[in-house]
Write a structure and sequence with these properties.
Layout (H helix, E strand, L loop, with lengths): L8 H19 L7 E2 L5 E2 L1 E4 L2 E4 L4 H16 L11 E3 L11 E2 L2 E2 L1 E3 L1 E4 L2 E4 L5 H17 L1 H5 L5 H6 L1
Parallel strand pairs: 5-8
Antiparallel strand pairs: 1-2, 3-4, 6-7, 9-10
Helix pairs in contact: 1-2
Length: 160
């Protein structure tokens, strides 16, 4: 992908994030969707760069939210990638009807990884903790030669 010298990639990413913010704000503006939040407000979505989490407590409202976001994004030439979309249902959601995005069905799952953390339908943190401990153990294992090296000072080893 080529860009003019005057256009930085960070500017393009900023424009994309601002478009996503506009899509979310306008798509959900007049819909009563989301989770009950503070002082009667609704928490509708969580955004991190180009990753979005849509929140709701019923199938009907989740379908309405998904359709509204897809329709608004289409106006800017953006589309949800159904292969990357996942639905995780908590224990309170009684309807197991599939959520549709256009003609495709969004995959329902018991767990997913979002921003490096594992989220499960039963709110368990076990897999997330095990994964983090495993990653830390792997890093410390690779430092084994440093720990055993007599030419590296104890002070430096502690700082590592």
């Amino acid at each position: 992908m080529e860009f003019s010298r005057n256009v930085r990639l960070s500017h393009l990413l900023f424009a994309l994030v601002m478009n996503i913010n506009w899509i979310m704000k306008t798509a959900l503006y007049d819909l009563y969707v989301g989770q009950e939040w503070i002082h009667g407000s609704q928490l509708r979505d969580l955004d991190y760069a180009d990753d979005i989490v849509l929140l709701d407590s019923s199938h009907g409202r989740m379908q309405k939210t998904t359709t509204a976001v897809e329709d608004r994004g289409r106006k800017l030439g953006l589309h949800m990638n159904v292969d990357k979309c996942k639905i995780i249902i908590s224990n309170d959601w009684v309807d197991d009807t599939e959520i549709q995005r256009g003609n495709a069905t969004v995959e329902m799952t018991e767990e997913l990884c979002y921003l490096g953390s594992y989220v499960t339908s039963d709110s368990s943190r076990d897999k997330d903790c095990q994964t983090r401990i495993g990653k830390a153990s792997g890093v410390f294992g690779r430092l084994k030669s440093v720990w055993k090296n007599r030419h590296v000072s104890t002070t430096l080893k502690v700082r590592l």
